[in-house]
Design brief:
252 residues, alpha/beta, 11 helices
Length: 252
């Protein structure tokens, strides 16, 4: 039975999609069979793994709204053992179309259920919002990874996300746990980055991953080539960081 993990933070630009792509690729490289579910209308996780989103017949949108079987929408990637259920800009309208659905918070859960036996890990890249699609993702998940950018506003808004997780635990998914807080875009030369690092560690203690994602040019360049960083530059610091994170996750 595969483990379903959402990557969520309503604050944009914290490295959520970068983490989804590169953690998924690292887990696959370590021999795990992984499905990356792109639940963000921007579809950056899909294009970042080389999927041409303009030519797709089926995406997660059709699975959610038209009840297309998810196996018809899943695509392989360049990375062995890594597969993608891609997204599309149409997903923007899905929340409105889902409003009148029965059990609207559990639509994604029903999509994922028949896939869990086929993969070791199913990672959901959530959009930077706390809307119905993100609620669906959290309801369908066993746990959530929260990327936290090592900058001034890093902790702002985390309380809203934690409150949303608390509500989902009480009403929709009692088993939902926080897998961990992941510090991203870390630069140990900056006093501010070190202050944020210390603050997050102080607040969340053992819930913070030991692996830290440092600022790395290769991480920024890789998506434009449609590759995870370990295919673009396996020797880069970013590749090493995400491999450390994958090993830490497997060891949990």
């Amino acid at each position: 039975m595969g483990k379903v993990i959402s990557l969520a933070n309503q604050k944009g630009g914290v490295g959520k999609t970068t983490t989804a792509i590169n953690l998924a690729a690292s887990l696959a490289t370590l021999g795990k069979k992984v499905l990356l579910i792109d639940a963000d209308p921007q579809a950056n996780a899909s294009s970042g793994l080389g999927i041409d989103i303009r030519s797709l017949e089926f995406t997660i949108y059709e699975c959610l709204i038209d009840k297309v079987p998810p196996k018809q929408a899943i695509h392989p990637t360049e990375v062995e053992n890594l597969f993608v259920l891609p997204s599309h800009i149409d997903l923007v309208g899905a929340e409105i179309e889902m409003l009148n659905m029965e059990n609207r918070e559990r639509v994604m859960q029903e999509i994922i259920k028949p896939l869990k036996d086929d993969y070791d890990y199913l990672l959901i890249d959530c959009s930077p919002s706390l809307g119905l699609i993100t609620v669906n993702a959290l309801t369908a998940s066993d746990s959530v990874i929260i990327p936290v950018q090592c900058e001034y506003f890093a902790l702002e808004g985390i309380s809203k996300l934690l409150n949303t997780i608390k509500i989902i635990k009480s009403k929709l998914n009692p088993a939902l746990e926080i897998e961990g807080f992941l510090l991203t875009m870390y630069d140990n030369r900056l006093r501010l980055a070190n202050q944020v690092y210390a603050e997050v560690k102080k607040h969340f203690q053992g819930m913070v991953f030991e692996a830290v994602i440092t600022r790395n040019v290769r991480l920024s360049e890789a998506p434009s080539h449609g590759k995870p960083v370990l295919l673009y530059d396996a020797e880069s610091k970013g590749s090493s960081n995400y491999m450390d994170l994958a090993k830490e996750l497997i060891a949990k």
